[in-house]
Amino acid sequence: MSTSELAPDITVLGGGIFGLSIAWAAIERGAKVRVIEKCAIGAGASGGIVGALAPHTPENWNDKKQFQFDSLIMARDWWPEVEAASGMTTGYLRAGRIQPITEDRLVELAHTRAEKAKTLWQGKADWTVVPVDDDPWQPHSPTGWLIKDTLSAHIHPRQAVRALAKAISNRGGELIIGDAQPEGKIIHATGYEGLLETSKSLDQPFGNGVKGQAILLDYDACGQAQLFADTLHIVPHSDGTVAIGSTSERVFDEPDTTDAQLDDVYTRAVKSFPVLREAKVLHRWAGVRPRAKSRAPVLGAHPVHEGAYIANGGFKIGFGMAPKVAEVMVDLVLEGRDTIPPSFRLSASLR
């Protein structure tokens, strides 16, 4: 049991990407931090294998797209700082993304988006339309054209959460696995189970879990861009593996079990990227991602636990959103500055 002298300023409940990122940002501001994770670091969706940090298309701009853009720009310095503090790799690399343009009618649209990116992305990244060349690390494109962007990055989720946990510990943060007493200001970052519990307490839909399945291959494409085709993310990791994902299953019985839907993912992937056909399958993964009702992360005062805060609902883009989510939550909790975008507020998920 801690004494008042050693009591934390902030207790974060949840050792996933949002919880750890907030804890790290709070330590960077000089706060005493405790993280309580009931199972294991990265036990939920944050322990996945894909790690595609990809932006929304540069059009129909809104506060969610702006937030994600800001976070992806922040990441270029943010993750190396975590690596320096932990002495561990996160697998982060801003190597861009390549997508095929599958229909002739979409070529003009891609050029239009390229023009919009020049303004919306503020000259900090590019969205370009280029012809297919003889590089084997690119998807088949029926039109002969590809989209390349320099904003996308990728990360190794498991390495990233472990590095965050080590950085927190190295800087004096307290990490507890199991049950413990939260003290100070409390932030709930408890994944899809937390969203379900809140829905039950409110007696209305607040958020849910969406199952995803992914596969890991033994193929060394270190330093290459991530690929995207047929709704699949192909992510080359620095450890000589390539991850392919993922499914989106709103209805499921076994959250941690892979099945024939992942077989279909693999079949589609090697059809689009024949270079992967002979690669050995190393691992099949399944997990459940937290999706708030608004489809954006939900940040702010907790709707059930009085005096506490919530940061949840990263869904498919939690790792990409994490640096900015951490900044905004620490601004709110430590300094009382509320910069939460409208679509991230409780009201957006309580309608």
Structure report:
With 351 residues, this protein is of the alpha/beta class. Helix content is 32%, strand content 23%. The chain is built from 8 helices and 16 strands. It has an 8-stranded mixed sheet, with helices on both faces. A hairpin with a 2-residue loop joins β11 and β12. α2 packs across α4 and α2 crosses α7. The radius of gyration is 20 Å and the shape is globular.
What is the beta-strand fraction? 15-25%
Distance between the termini: 41 Å
Low-confidence stretches: none
Query: How many strands appear in the DSSP assignment?
Result: 16
Strand order of the largest sheet: 5-6-4-11-12-13-10-14
Series of H and E elements: EHEEHEHEEEHEEHEEEEHEEEHH
Helix content: 25-40%
Number of helices: 8
| Biggest beta-sheet profile | 8 strands, mixed
SS-based structural class? alpha/beta
Mean model confidence by pLDDT: 95
Rounded to an integer in angstroms, the radius of gyration calculated over CA atoms is 20 Å
Give the overall silhouette.
Answer: globular
Features:
single chain; 351 residues; alpha/beta; eight-stranded mixed sheet; 8 helices; 23% strand
SSE topology sketch:
Layout: E1 10-13, H1 17-28, E2 33-37, E3 52-53, H2 63-86, E4 97-100, H3 105-120, E5 127-131, E6 145-149, E7 153-154, H4 157-170, E8 174-177, E9 185-188, H5 191-202, E10 207-218, E11 226-229, E12 232-236, E13 241-245, H6 260-272, E14 280-292, E15 298-301, E16 309-312, H7 318-335, H8 346-349
Parallel strand pairs: 1-2, 1-9, 2-8, 4-11, 9-16
Antiparallel strand pairs: 3-7, 4-6, 5-6, 10-13, 10-14, 11-12, 12-13, 15-16
Helix pairs in contact: 1-4, 1-7, 2-4, 2-7
